[in-house]
Amino acid sequence: MVTTEQASRNIVDFRPGDTVRVHYRVIEGNRERIQVFEGLCIARQGGGPSETFTVRKNSFGVFVERIFPLHSPKIARIEVVSRGDVRKAKLYYIREKVGKKARVKRAR
């Protein structure tokens, strides 16, 4: 559980439809490394210290979705690669789209 003191880190402003790059700390045995997960943010849920966001990416032809706690201490940083122009807060309809139909318009 994340407390409000930990949640006060400065979080970059991103919304569903944006392509984000999440730098996530992974602990393997006794060493720690940063793993990058880049994809389309399709949802943000909750609020406050327990807020989460879902990122969807294509990995060798297989789509992978991962849910990250926004205020997790394991997230090193979040970068916004590009802004998307969408009208919905939850982009779950993207799951059924294939190819060019799964694209999101770029914001100006």
Automatic annotation (TrEMBL):
A molecular function GO annotation: structural constituent of ribosome
Keywords noted in UniProt: Ribonucleoprotein, Ribosomal protein
Family listed: Belongs to the bacterial ribosomal protein bL19 family.
Protein's UniProt name: Large ribosomal subunit protein bL19
The keyword ATP-binding is annotated on this UniProt entry: no
Gene name linked to the record: rplS
InterPro entries the UniProt entry points to: Ribosomal_bL19 (IPR001857), Ribosomal_bL19_CS (IPR018257), Ribosomal_bL19_sf (IPR038657), Translation_prot_SH3-like_sf (IPR008991)
Cellular component, GO, one term: cytosolic large ribosomal subunit
Protein function: This protein is located at the 30S-50S ribosomal subunit interface and may play a role in the structure and function of the aminoacyl-tRNA binding site.
Pfam families: Ribosomal_L19 (PF01245)
GO BP of this protein: translation
